[in-house]
Amino acid sequence: MSLPLIESQKPGVRSLEGFSTIGTGIYLRSTGEQCQDTTLPNVILIFGWMGAQLRHLQNYTQAYTKLYPNASQIVVRCNPNVFWTTTGTKQRRLMPVIDALEALHCFPSSSSAEPPPRILTHVFSNGGSLQMTLLGHMLRRKYGSALIQKFITSTLILDSCPATGSLKTIKLAFSAVIRNPILRIIVLTMLYTMHFVGLGLSLVLGKRIMVMENLRIEMWNPHVLPWMGLHTPRLYLFSRKDKLIPWQDVTRHAEIAKERGMDARCELFEESEHVAHIRVEPERYWASVQDIWAAAISKGKVEDQRLLT
């Protein structure tokens, strides 16, 4: 039995304000002009958390529009069925993201007259992380090492992620976005089965095949998106009160990233719930975002000086 596409968005709300719908759960705000200030991002890529409603994502898109008005934005939603949909289907759904990035001159196939892109990527929770890592696989297959070999000013913001995940957090996460009790039981039964099958196969085969554990490992790749590298500053935003993503898991992930040579920074909140830090401390939240982007710009200037000498 194939499960339906689960939409948590209220009927009548079809898109983000100021955005065009370019695919299933994918939205684009294109400024149609080049950002002349090279200290600001010109492309912002946002991967929403599982089941995120548009009205919640709009809190971030509107803030980014105020901070960086000349930057184009791409928003990718994460429907709960990302956890059981076939890889081929998920890839087809993400193709409009690649088309939009190409139209925004983010890749080598673009006109050589275009200046290098400056890309800010903002990822929410494990759902957004799954979408981002899949997009990364697709881009690396298409472009190979062409982007990895090129210095591109970029930053990666990780909001409430990543974590390994447990049966308890799986239940909490899916119960929050699937209101229909019958469908919730079906989905949770299937996910529990997948969890135990994956655990058993991992023990038998002697290698990790658990989805969330593999996700954490992939997120340690400095080229998780091919324009990123060791030079890309990472900002982990997380909270002690998050019931879905334990703060200890995020702290450990950041520590290992540092050990592997990445520029990983942490902003630990005390009172906010999962992906809700801007509700409690919005000024601190957006100041941290601007600071990490400033760090990316500083690294870009150092690279420019190196190339000139």
UniProtKB/TrEMBL annotation:
Keywords: Membrane, Nucleus, Transmembrane, Transmembrane helix. One of its GO terms (cellular component) is nuclear outer membrane. The chain crosses the membrane at residues 182-206. It is found in: Nucleus outer membrane. It is a single-pass membrane protein. Its main location: nucleus. InterPro entries: AB_hydrolase_fold (IPR029058), DUF829_TMEM53 (IPR008547). PANTHER family: TRANSMEMBRANE PROTEIN 53. Belongs to the TMEM53 family. This is Indole-diterpene biosynthesis protein PaxU. It comes from Suillus discolor.
